[in-house]
């Protein structure tokens, strides 16, 4: 009599195909909420389909694309067991990069990598992505959920995404439109957004020994709630602004801070100056600075300091721009101006002291 043996299997190696199928079923209702008329087919195909004939209304359509992730903010979500907000961050990081050139967001795909597929958890992540896509006006046309046992722990995960938008060639925004005397309008962030969390975690957890469930009076809530505040999605606000006012350029304030990101859209012969006294950064920025004895310039190189998006507009468009943003519930103010380069070595600098 021969001894019965059990062969290796994908499941034994840690990959649960049935759990993956269950996750897809759970996420379908959320993906459906993001659909635009140009989207063909449903979830489950090998590729997402978008009807490009919709671009015929453009004289010379330019496709804009971007890809990004959320960084170590996902570890905060993991520790708190909150998975339905991190998708907002992902959409913001991708689609707000695309809208900077004036492009309308069209569609997005996501990639979710997990140590073990927990269907409800994956569906919650996709729910957040879908809600973010609605806020950005784009469709979620597909994605991938990958299970990597042995590489990631059972509760570990990461997310990434890629998006596509379209802009008419003669409406492309950027450095070549900016002129001396233009105003720099700042739009308030919702908090830290999705950059600098490696510094934030090091300072608040490793050095200050704070916990996520600690209530912080200055924040008015727990530290965990503050750190998981979703990144504000400006896409539709920026598109509305370009319809009502003349806009020369946008700058999405992400990794590298305000000055470095603004400098990316400033032409070589000009200089942007931003006055810190025009706003007061939120309490979380002061908390990080004090808890880690982080110098101001280091904070400004790493965090957005309360500004998530900037618009460069001619002076005659300032009033209508501020009115448009206020009508859409976006806190905005004139924070600086564009000057001749002169002796300035940098494309953008911050001046003055923050308001208290």
UniProtKB/TrEMBL annotation:
Name recorded for this polypeptide: Phosphoribosylformylglycinamidine cyclo-ligase
Organism encoding this protein: Streptomyces katrae
Catalytic reaction list: 2-formamido-N(1)-(5-O-phospho-beta-D-ribosyl)acetamidine + ATP = 5-amino-1-(5-phospho-beta-D-ribosyl)imidazole + ADP + phosphate + H(+)
Pathway(s) where this gene product acts: Purine metabolism; IMP biosynthesis via de novo pathway; 5-amino-1-(5-phospho-D-ribosyl)imidazole from N(2)-formyl-N(1)-(5-phospho-D-ribosyl)glycinamide: step 2/2
Residue ranges constituting the PurM-like N-terminal domain according to the UniProt record: 59-167
Gene: purM
Enzyme Commission code: 6.3.3.1
Molecular function terms, GO-annotated: phosphoribosylformylglycinamidine cyclo-ligase activity
Alphabetical list of Pfam families matching this protein: AIRS (PF00586), AIRS_C (PF02769)
InterPro entries: PurM-like_C_dom, PurM-like_C_sf, PurM-like_N, PurM-like_N_sf, PurM_cligase
């Amino acid at each position: 009599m021969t001894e019965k043996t059990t062969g290796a299997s994908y499941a034994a190696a840690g990959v649960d195909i049935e759990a993956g199928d269950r996750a897809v079923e759970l996420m379908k209702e959320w993906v459906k909420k993001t659909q635009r008329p140009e989207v063909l087919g449903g979830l489950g195909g090998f590729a997402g389909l978008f009807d490009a004939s919709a671009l015929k209304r453009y004289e010379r359509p330019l496709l804009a694309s971007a890809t990004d992730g959320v960084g170590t903010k996902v570890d905060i979500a993991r520790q708190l067991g909150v998975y339905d907000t991190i998708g907002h961050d992902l959409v913001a990081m991708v689609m707000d990069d695309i809208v900077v050139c004036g492009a309308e967001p069209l569609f997005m795909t996501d990639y979710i990598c997990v140590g073990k597929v927990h269907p409800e958890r994956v569906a919650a992540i996709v729910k957040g992505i879908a809600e973010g896509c609605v806020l950005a006006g784009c469709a979620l046309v597909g994605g991938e959920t990958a299970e990597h046992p042995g590489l990631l722990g059972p509760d570990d995960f990461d997310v990434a995404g890629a998006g596509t938008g379209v802009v008419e060639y003669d409406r492309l925004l950027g450095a070549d439109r900016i002129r001396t005397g233009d105003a720099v309008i700042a739009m308030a962030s919702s908090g830290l957004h999705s950059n600098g969390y490696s510094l934030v975690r090091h300072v608040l957890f490793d050095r200050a020994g704070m916990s996520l469930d600690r209530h912080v009076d200055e924040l008015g809530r727990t530290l965990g709630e503050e750190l998981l505040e979703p990144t504000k999605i400006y896409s539709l606000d920026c598109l509305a602004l370009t319809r009502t006012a003349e806009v020369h350029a946008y700058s999405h304030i992400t990794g590298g801070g305000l000055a470095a990101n603004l400098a990316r859209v400033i032409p070589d012969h000009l200089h942007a100056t931003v006055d810190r006294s025009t706003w007061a950064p939120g309490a979380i920025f002061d908390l990080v600075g004090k808890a880690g004895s982080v110098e101001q310039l280091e904070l400004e190189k790493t965090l957005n300091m309360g500004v998530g998006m900037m618009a460069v507009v001619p002076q005659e468009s300032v009033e209508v721009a501020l009115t448009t943003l206020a009508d859409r519930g976006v806190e905005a103010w004139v924070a600086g101006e564009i000057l001749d380069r002169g002796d300035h070595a940098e494309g953008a600098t911050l001046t003055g002291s923050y308001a208290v």
